[in-house]
Amino acid sequence: MRIVVLGAGAWGTALANVAARGANDVVLWARNADHVAEMQAEKTNRRRLPGVAFAANLRASSNQDDLAGASAILAVVPAQAMRGVLTDLASHIPAGIPIVVCAKGIEQKTELFMSDVVRAVLPKNPPVILSGPSFADDVGKKLPTAVTLAAEDGALAERLAVALAAPWFRLYHSRDVRGVEIGGAAKNVLAIASGIAAGRGLGASAGAALIARGFAELSRFGRAFGAQPSTLMGLSGLGDLVLTCGSAQSRNFSLGLGLGRGLSLEEASGGKLAEGAFTADVLVRMARAHAIDMPISHAVNDVLGGRIGVAEVIEQLLARPPKAEA
What we know:
Distance between the termini: 48 Å
Number of helices: 15
Helix content: 40-55%
Strand order of the largest sheet: 5-2-1-6-7-8-9-10
Number of strands: 10
Strand content: 5-15%
Largest sheet: 8 strands, mixed
Structural class: alpha/beta
């Protein structure tokens, strides 16, 4: 069994090491030949996940021919780059094998979820979504982690969950593809809001309220797009939301933390990718088109777009008229 992991970031590296337990050959694929040569020589990815040694059957490569013979491909590239990467490699990807998307976002230009992007580029390959409360550093250090893996074919989801599992990495399988990918995309935007609140020093009570009301927004959005309530209440929904809204390990929370402290968007990002910054606008557009009430997400999008300041947006949210909790 060969598993190819597209993307040699921290998360891709951590997942490649996990996958190496259940596969004969795991390829960590990256475009940068110098980075690949460095990883091969050192048997680690010190640029992205330092201190984590490669498994014996894990190798780095920039050769597209290494995709041939793959049993599954894990696409661990940013959501907005997913279409481009899959398009470039399409002729090298065997038909019929599953594409396991490990990115959390919605394509900005098309308003397509990641599973739909896979279907558009690779119509002969079933899309699978892996998502849940997980940090690459934790998985790399073999700390206990549980996530959800969803495919429309329940048997496929179950087989992949078994193949990718490790004693410290537990996968629950699901058929609710839409629910799993919505949880992963929406929680990133809400994590920015939690970071802003923390950066402003608004306290633990405000932080808890944001998570609760943020989950209400996520749930409304999920229901509108056919997600199952049990999925939204599970690891890939509420579980991931709680993790990313309360830890500086989350790039989205850290971005909000910097914004709350008065930094510019560029300063707050620190040069790191925060998927929520790219998802906010498309999430709000889709919510508006379906008449879904998402005030926190709207507020985050307005702050990111420079249309309103942090202090003003907090004042506006607190001044919203009283309503029944729902």
